[in-house]
Amino acid sequence: MKPGKFDYYCPTNVDEALDLLDESGFDGKIIAGGQSLVPIMNMRLSAPECLIDINRLDDLDFIEVDQGVLKVGALTRQSRVETSDMIQTYSGLLSEAIPYIGHVQTRNRGTFGGSLVHADPTAEIPLSLMALGGTAIISSKEEKREVNVEDFFVTYLTTDVMPTELMTEIHIPIWSGRVGSSFKEISRRHGDFALVASACQVTVDHQNRIENIRLALGGVEAIPLLLEEISDVMKGERLSDSLFSKVEEVVEATVDPESDLHASAEYRRHQAKVLAKQTIVGAYNRAKEVIV
Asked: Which residue did the predictor score with more confidence, 33 or 181?
């Protein structure tokens, strides 16, 4: 199939892109990597009247550290994030998660911000950002605002970005101390969308007691799910069988997956508990190995 007719614009700076968004409103769509939008348009599930191609906005392609915050431009290709020494040093969770995205060709075109705005609840980047506690910077002609990742995802394939707005960058806090992270997912084949996924980041004290933990699950709700109660259960504790029994209780009580042609709700619920445990153990063990 082919997409419907549309007007095409290729702005050369952010202000020009924001002007075009303001003029087009609900009739316009941003395109960058096109990994999600193009198939949707080809299937006529979306028929925008105009496309605004932001691939020439070089100011949105960057990875940098500023005052304890890792900043990634929305147009930065996923493959660049995957291979970045800076990402590996300050956010190892992303380095571990991004290779699960499609295949090399997919990551060469797909953008960091595009994955977030598409907001697939099983996607690796949104799930990782939920575990890391990131912030999205969103611009319009009138203002620039910051949205915590917990408030960024609204529902399935829907975010807090309005039709006249452009997400320009993502800020990720750099955790200090003895930090460990882990990412796991289950899919039918490598490169397929995940059936269930889990991302975890942990810090431990000098006695290997958990100081801080964020655990996020994908594929179990309409958005990436942060299990906030996990922190209450695990803070100040070392790993033990009794502690994992409490973790399983939290996961069981929190997740509410749906059945579809790929997997049943029961299967997803079971794997959510399995992957939660695996990523907690992985992140905890890596944190214990850190010498500060």
From this structure: 181
What are the tens digits of pLDDT across the range 115-148? 999 999 999 999 999 999 999 999 999 999 999 9
Residue 230: CATH number of its domain: 3.30.390.50
Q: Sheet holding 69-73: strands in order across?
A: 63-66, 69-73, 166-173, 135-139, 144-148
For residue 41, pLDDT over 90 is answered with no
Domain total of the chain: 3
242 lies in the same domain as 212? yes
**So what's the pLDDT on residue 47?**
87
Report the pLDDT averaged over residues 40-61.
92
Q: What residues make up the domain containing 167?
A: 58-173
Is residue 217 assigned to a domain? Answer: yes
Tell me if 25 is assigned to some domain: yes
Same domain, 49 and 146: no
Q: What is the pLDDT of residues 247-269, one digit of tens each?
A: 999 999 999 999 999 999 999 99
**Structural domain includes residue 235:** yes
pLDDT tens-digit profile of 213-258? 999 999 999 999 999 999 999 999 999 999 999 999 999 999 999 9
Is 197 a domain residue? yes
